[in-house]
Amino acid sequence: MYRHSRLRRARTPLTLMAAATVATALFATSAGPATAAKSTPSKSGKPTVVLVHGAFADSSSWNGVIKKLKEKGYPVVAAANPLRSLSGDAASVKNLLASIDGPVVLVGHSYGGAVISNAAHGSDNVKALVYADAFLLDKGESANDLASKFPGSVINKVLRPVPIAKPDGSQDVDLYIDQSKFHQAFGADVPAKTADLMAVTQRPGTGTALNEPSGEPAWKTIPSWALVGSNDQIIPRDAQLYMAKRAHAHIKEIKSSHAVSVSHPGAVTRIIEKAARTVR
């Protein structure tokens, strides 16, 4: 035992030196988007599906969709949307897209729709856009503008603002949905126990993000599909149809709450597949 422990201690400095060397190499290769490691193209020949969640959710909201896509052989990436500002969130997703070799089907839910419209602008590997109960903003519009353009949204009745300070010292708010109202407002067709977990783990969007005007949207040049939830109480059906028709998107309606990726992962997967089949 004594000799073994001495040998193990003797190797420790070498192990630390090796780890430091590896860490240095990794740091050097992660200095910026231009040096980011490229992902391996799919052997299946299918495009990579990149999923972008919206406010009051996180990447786990795609779990049912991810499972179905993986079973069908699609490579999948679920982006961690920062939810801090529309321009910043779009830049984060754009950098992720740049790390992926081969064609991409880019999918957004809710506010994530605004993010993908901006992130895909100028991203040549994005071949199709899919909006699931999502915003398809035009240049100069904000998520808050379109949520209130048509009657039916309860969003302003259920939000709980938490004051925060931005890095520059100015003030902002983190916006949460009141946990006691989350099930009915966000996911009425989701099992109550699941909705309760979603309410607790929700990630807030800032007031800045939800009010920041969009840049030039990619749906003007990239083919788009829209899954419209007719029972959505966050982005009303009429608002979704208005945006989807304006974008000349391929539209599919479904009786769903706003949490369509959780309550109807099969329908979300099917519309993603329709978009993916057009990618060559």
From TrEMBL:
Residues 1-36 form the signal peptide. Gene3D superfamilies: alpha/beta hydrolase (3.40.50.1820). SUPFAM superfamilies: alpha/beta-Hydrolases (SSF53474). It holds the Pfam family Abhydrolase_6. One of its GO terms (molecular function) is hydrolase activity. It comes from Streptomyces cadmiisoli. Keywords: Hydrolase, Signal. Residues 49-268 form the AB hydrolase-1 domain. This is Alpha/beta hydrolase.
